[in-house]
Amino acid sequence: MRLTVSHDLDRLQRDLERIPGKIAKGAERAGKKRAEQGNRLAKADAKKKAGQPGRHYPESFTVEHDGLMTWVYGPDASFKQGGMDFEWGRGRQTKPHKSLSKSADKVGPKFWDDIDKLIGRVFW
Question: CA–CA separation, 44 vs 6, rounded Å?
Answer without folding.
Answer: 54
